[in-house]
Write a structure and sequence with these properties.
Length: 353
């Protein structure tokens, strides 16, 4: 007796059924293989796209004579050399000298740059939308910390054989000051205020738009004394101290303490001896810590990769520029959040608790 089965409402013999199942089974196999192959191909394309993706980023420190420029160049050199690390996109960093942390913070908010030098007091006001920052609306909430920069401090220089040998000698002399448009000039102004001095009345003050111009004024005899708040040791002062015998003037400790009360991120500080040539004595001053700012527009994996390369090749960065290494001890609350990608990495290595 021949067995009969029902298959799509048509009578088939067992032999015909077996032949049909074999036929359709092969079709099913081919369809599944095609689909799986397509999925694998898509995954390979996506992986290839991730591997070949490149981010061209702008990194903005202050002028070329400042410490932050050297730090930025060292960081960019490491990133351009070691990126991409496995599983991450290729990064290419261009370092562009900027005008100061206020300008950089504004550029970050407007989306004109990717990474820029910022300071806690400016970033706090921007993030809160205070005063002139209110016009940016919700964009200010995109500001984030990538990593600390370096130690900054007010530094007062004079020629060794010039008329200014102590802080008390500055009154009445030709002072080369930073432009009031520079955010770090606020530290200088706080020092004069704490000392009971008015830079526009008690000194013959010229405001310079760049740190380089200040140094030139002292070197060329157009200023008796200059004041700069920046990192140390800095390239410009180092060159000046190499060609001229200069001194660094201490800010009296009681004045440094009073000036530090102007902002919660400032503190009385001591610049170590031998920071500059022939400076074999410590210098009391006002210090603060700046940071490299970015925004939430920077992808998490990019922020993570930047931090990982900078951390893993830390010693090489110090060999390129010694102040590069200061950031490892400067992690703190800067008044705005860390970037999620950066925070993830710094917590992994224990530099943020």
């Amino acid at each position: 007796m021949v067995g009969i089965v029902w298959f799509n409402q048509v009578e088939y013999s067992m032999e015909e059924r077996r032949m049909a199942m074999k036929k359709y089974g092969m079709v099913y196999f081919l369809v599944i293989s095609f689909l799986l192959g397509g999925m694998i191909s898509i995954q390979n394309v996506q992986a290839q796209q991730t591997k070949s993706a490149q981010y061209n980023l702008t990194w903005v420190p202050t002028g070329t004579s400042g410490t932050t420029y050297g730090v930025a160049v060292a960081a960019a050199t490491l990133i351009n050399k070691y990126s991409p690390i496995p599983g991450f996109p290729k990064l290419q960093i261009s370092v562009i000298p900027g005008k100061g942390s206020t300008a950089h913070t504004s550029q970050l908010v407007r989306g004109e740059i990717d990474i820029g030098l910022s300071s806690p007091n400016i970033a706090r006001d921007a993030y809160a939308g205070k005063d002139e920052w209110a016009k940016f609306g919700a964009k200010v909430k995109e500001l984030r910390v990538l990593l600390p920069t370096t130690i900054m401090a007010a530094q007062i220089y004079s020629l060794w054989d010039g008329p200014v040998k102590t802080f008390g000698d500055i009154k009445g002399k030709r002072l080369g000051e930073m432009s009031k448009a520079m955010s770090m000039q606020k530290v200088n102004a706080a020092i004069w205020k704490a000392a009971g001095l008015d830079a526009d009345k008690d000194m013959k003050t010229t405001y310079y738009s760049t740190l380089e111009a200040q140094l030139d004024a002292l070197r060329d005899g157009h200023a008796d004394v200059i004041i700069q708040t920046q990192g140390y040791p800095s390239t410009g002062p180092m060159e000046l101290f190499t060609v001229k015998h200069c001194r660094v003037i201490s800010v009296p400790i009681e004045i440094a303490k009073k000036a530090s009360e102007e902002d919660v991120s400032w503190y009385p500080s001591t610049m170590p001896a031998n920071t500059y040539p022939k400076q074999d004595y410590p210098v009391s001053t006002v210090g603060l810590v700046l940071f490299w700012g970015t925004t939430t527009r920077l992808p998490n994996e990019v922020a993570y990769e930047i931090c990982k390369i900078v951390h893993q090749h830390y010693k090489e960065g110090v060999e390129m520029f010694k102040p590069f290494g200061q950031f490892s001890e400067l992690f703190k609350d800067f008044g705005i959040p860390y970037h999620p990608g950066a925070e993830k990495y710094w917590r992994e290595v224990g530099w943020i608790k």
